[in-house]
Amino acid sequence: MNQISHLTLPEFKIVTPSTLREALSILDTNNTRSKLLAGGTDLLVDLRNRTINPNIIIDLKNIPELNELKQKGDIFVIGAAVPIADILKSKEVRKNFHSLYTALNEMCDEILRFRATIGGNLGTASPAADTAGPLLIHRARIIVASKKISREIPIQEFFIGVKQNCLMPNEIITAIHIPISTENEKSVFLKLKRNSEDLALIGVSAINYNSQTKLAFTAVAPIPILVDITAYISGNKRPNEEKFKEIWKLVKNAISPINDLRASREYRLHMTEILTRKALKEVLQK
Amino acid sequence: MGKYVGESIIRKDALEKVNGTATYAFDIDNIPNLLIGKFLTSPYAHAHIRSIDISKAEKINGVVAIVTGKDWPVRIGLYAGDRDILAVDKVVWAGQPVVAISAESYEIAEKALEQIQIEYEPLPAIIDPVKAKLSNDILVHEKLGEYEHSPAFNPIPGTNIANHFKLRKGNIEKGFKESDKIIENTFTMPQVAHAYLEPIVAIGHYKRDGKIEIWSSAQSPFTVRYLMGITFAIPTSNVTVHAPYLGGGFGGKAGLNYEPLAVLLSKNSNYRPVKLQLTREENFRSAPIRVGMVAKIKTGVKDNGRIIAEEIEYIWDSGACADYAVNVGRAGGYVSIGPYEIDNIKSDSYTLYTNKPYATAFRGFGHMELHWAIERQRDIIAKNLGMDPIALRKINTLKAGKSYTANQHRLRKDAGNVDECLEKVWNDLKTHFKGKIGDKPWLFRGIGVSCFMKGPAQPPNSASSAYVKFNEDGGIFVSVGTSEMGQGTITSLAQIAAEELSIPIEKVYIKGERDTDRDAYTWQTVGSRSLFMDGNAVRNACIDAKHQIFEIASQVLHTPPYDLVLENESIYPKGEPWKNLNLVDVIMGYMFTSGEAIGGPIMGHGTYIAKMTMLDAETGAGNPAIFETFGSQGVEVEINVLTGEIKIKRLISAFDIGKAINPQLCESQILGGSIMALSLGLNEKLQYDEKGHLLNPNFVDYVLTRADDLPDEFEFFLVENPQLDAPFGARGIGELTMLGVPAAIGNAIANAINVEIYDTPITSERIWYEIKKQRPELLKLKEEFLQED
Amino acid sequence: MIVNESESLIINVNNIEHKISVKPNETLLDVLRLKLGIKSVKAACWSGDCGICTVLIDGKPMKSCLVLSHEIRNKSIMTVEGLLEDELFQKLQNSFVKNGAIQCGFCTSAFLLVGYYLIKNKRNLDLLSIKKGINGIICRCTGYKQIIDSIYELK
Ligand SMILES: Cc1cc2nc3c(=O)[nH]c(=O)nc-3n(C[C@H](O)[C@H](O)[C@H](O)COP(=O)(O)OP(=O)(O)OC[C@H]3O[C@@H](n4cnc5c(N)ncnc54)[C@H](O)[C@@H]3O)c2cc1C
Ligand code: FES
Ligand code: FES
Q: What pLDDT does C2 receive?
């Protein structure tokens, strides 16, 4: 196939359902030939590059269930199609999920954040997805609907490969549920960039709650990685150098950074270590 | 001086631009019967074209013409005819256009391109310019010997050398023998992209009557006109080129780019006009870029800091075609050593062909690259001698009246003063510097400076012209040939006219868009030459108009012309302002009460031609430039040694520009140029795989500085030692604003952490890598980092 | 309702309603520039990176190369052309002119629109929040400082 740089988008039909039912039934009958549209910040780029070639585009933005943003008991619900700019306005998100808030604040740029969504970020399932690390450490559950059944997917099971998630072709993410911790919880998200506006060269998230400590890593493996290091931490205190070496060994075995044009494997490894140190510093006491 | 010269007059194009009405070639789509053009490019960096099958594409409804290289196998180029309009027998870079198409819409054009089949026979490609010089096993141009080229350049057939420029002075062996220390280093800068925002656009209309009309995002419409005449074998006068406002150029639109292809498509499309507009990816792969550089420098120095010998080899990676890169090699060659006087010099500057996108002019024209090398080398020498880097420089800098480049030529007496610039920058940096240790043990601060010089690289017969024409209301229309691509020249030229004719600046009309039929000729809009060359032409045109006005007024006022004064739109005999004549009563011809009329509409004409010499082929001796602007830049940096992250705390510049015609425009150039240089120095690099495929043809991975990356503080100084033959003393500044930034950063890093950087971009990863190599002990601080408060 | 071929769409651009026929694969950028001839909106990357295609949709800045035209049904679009009589916008234009925030001008409309949005919507607008607010737009000419200053002056 000739290498052509396209200015146009391929031909497709578009549908804008206003109920979830309608969306699910259109998706069900056209599942292999359709694509879901939220903010379009990944989708339109892929369409223009012809990496995808759908017949039908289903615009999810008018579906009420996907636009919820609220606390429900001890769970916080983020609708899959809520623009990130709106999520950032939520006081609850800011208060309860510090690492997610930081990640959202570092994602794309302010203009794109009026469009980009978490549903889309998970839909693309890039190894560098900025929301993935925070959602992992915050024990998020992905709420998914299809015409016949709905299910909840624990975030650790959601990613299955580079730009691959475990959704069936007839499924739509409706919301993300995140438990609100009653414990004194501390979390952080750190992103390595080449300048102020960049995709993550690596992302490191950390959380400490209820005497548990977890780390999550993005852009250093085919999928986002969660590492539980509770066993190495005592009394919510920072590890000493010896203990840190053990933690780092564990992390190093779990990740597999690559060499690419954005950074070398060596630098990614080094910076993962430095950012892990930094993350632990911030969530643990001296 | 002056009512208008020296004032921050509001840009002439400001209102059109804030109102969104300024028109760019990108915006033009209202030409009747306009077709869309699009091309298919080579996926190989080097390959023979076996066959091209267009049969399926031809049948698609809405496709008007399909052209291949064989349809018009004329080789084009600025200084050497080494570029096919479309590849003829072989492709020489990945991204080179091979087949082009005109169609009724983008959809159709894109669909048709998908249906074209090209068979290639891949050839081994040469990607590294150093290897391209060492080995002739792979030749980018086997037929180099057959190509026509300008006599100013020396391509060497049977090699990949597009040009070899030599600079010789004194006796290099003797110089090294007498040196106390010899210091050798290699520095590099990669190929980069101009990344102007408006992509390349060319609308071509080959008309039935044999005339050609072009609308192009071109910096040099007159050069485009001239070369189009040659390309299509028609008289220059049959070609009209319109260059509307440019959405940035920076040298990337200085040559002849896609105009020939647009015209060729039009010729084959039943004489319908065709618009070729590149996508960003096409712009990265198929449009010209900036040279890469490898510099090997060997310097001989006395213990007292006097540099007495310097041997240099510059390798300029020109990519697949020579375009401006041969002239970059030449300019880089004669300025080899930077703003210094050294008695013994041997410098060889080679422009090399490789199988990569072709290189053209880029703001700075090789000087940012060479000063990266020279100015890093100066600091390394100072460190070796245990000297202060400013003291070392001042011992060696080029002073007025001293000889530079090769033997014969001496710097003019009214030249700028590089020492003054250096001192200003260094003093400012030192005053604000609070010491090397940052707030945390792993944060280090340092300061660094560099100095530099540059003049316009143009042929000795490069010329400019202008005319001024009075309107009935006393307003004037000023016509010049220079293009407005954001630099603001037209505003400064208007100020010169207002000053010279003493009329209100609001009454000076000057257009941002160019039309080669309407406008006065200028050679090109390059090399920071416009203010000087076109400025002198405008001034001369105004003087000519004034003569015509005085000629008429003298008959009315009964005073000899040389005793008349033109001021505030009236004319009067010297010392007798009450005997005044209104300018408006003269400019369309004067009528006495009797009805007898004299004179006629005033239209002044002025020219200016460069005053330089040819350079000697063996030694480079001669006068290469009409002026040299000197300057200095400095930065304060903060380095995190654990991560390699670098923050620019302060960025200081000083330039001896002779005279700031418009201080705010100077400030804009300084801010814009130094940030562009910061971006180039810290982030930018075109990355290729080993087969020559460009890996980052987009703004995701071709990383540009953004608003949130700016240094904390900016400062600048304008030094004004006027040059007597310049318009109001002013030298050019546009490119100068970039030249010293990367070297100053490199020097500041060495100052902060004693780690030497030899290559750009100076990414965090590179700094970390060099720390690991040169000072691994610093990385130990990571243990302390984990435990600190 | 599934939209197939060209369908006519009523869109409100600069307070004028247009009824135009648009194919599903046309972007808002295409509609504005090619169908409505609104040329203040530029483009340089067609993939969300440069930001110079930014327009205001219901008052919020969005990059029009990444918006399908069918998404803007019942929404109102603002470009520079529609704000020329707006007093605050005029002040911002003057500030750009006075501070030298314009060079080639290819990015200017986008910065004006985002600047206008920031001034109108953000309380306590400081230099950092301006930098973050405009970080999605590239300017290759000015080095941004004069743009930032122009917006800051009107906070
Ligand atoms: C300039 C630029 C900068 C960027 N920077 C970042 C960055 O810093 N960090 C980062 O992580 N990403 C970044 N991205 C990528 C992108 O913006 C994010 O992934 C964003 O979250 C995608 O959201 P969206 O709503 O735009 O998704 P869309 O483009 O609408 O959709 C993306 C994918 O998800 C699917 N999808 C959408 N919604 C659902 C749903 N409810 N259920 C199932 N599938 C769904 C779509 O079919 C599609 O395949 C950047 C993109 C651009 C253009
Ligand atoms: S053209 Fe839309 S962001 Fe660049
Ligand atoms: S002024 Fe040229 S890109 Fe901003």
A: 63
Q: Looking at domain B290-458+614-783, does it have CATH number 3.30.365.10?
A: yes
Written as tens digits, the pLDDT of chain A (286 aa) is: 678 999 999 999 999 999 999 999 999 998 889 999 999 999 999 999 999 999 999 999 999 999 999 999 999 999 999 999 999 999 999 999 999 999 999 999 999 999 999 999 999 999 999 999 999 999 999 999 999 999 999 999 999 999 999 999 999 999 999 999 877 899 999 999 999 999 999 999 999 998 899 999 999 999 999 999 999 999 899 999 999 999 999 999 999 999 999 999 999 999 999 999 999 999 999 8
Q: Which ligand is nearest to the CA of C102?
A: 3
Answer yes or no: is the C-beta of C141 below 6 A from any ligand 3 atom: yes
SS (H, E, C) C27-86: EHHHHHHHHCCCCCCCCCCCCCCCCCCEEEECCEEEEHHHCEHHHHCCCEEECHHHHCCC
Contact predicate B193/B250, CB 8 Å: no
Distance linking the first and last C-alpha atoms of chain C: 44
Mutate to test the pocket of ligand 2, among C33, C52, C79, C134 (most ligand atoms within 8 A of CB): C52
Q: Å from B283 to nearest chain C CA?
A: 10
Domain ranges of chain A: 13-59, 64-179, 187-283
Question: Rounded to a whole number, what is the distance in Å from the CA of B786 to chain A's nearest CA?
Answer: 6
Residues whose CB falls within 8 Å of the CB of residue B151, separated by 6 or more in sequence, listed in order: none
Residue B248 Cα, gap to closest chain C Cα (Å): 6
> Residue B352 to residues B164, B294, B358: CA-CA distances in angstroms?
9, 11, 11
Assessment of whether the complete model's pTM goes beyond 0.95: yes
Domains B290-458+614-783 and B462-609 in one fold: yes
CATH superfamily of A187-283: CO dehydrogenase flavoprotein, C-terminal domain (3.30.390.50)
Chain B positions in Cβ-Cβ contact with residue A261 (cut-off 8 Å): 687, 695-696, 701
Q: Does B634 touch chain C (CB under 8 A)?
A: no
Contacts B761 to A, Cβ<8 Å: none
Nearest-by-CA chain A residue for B285: A5
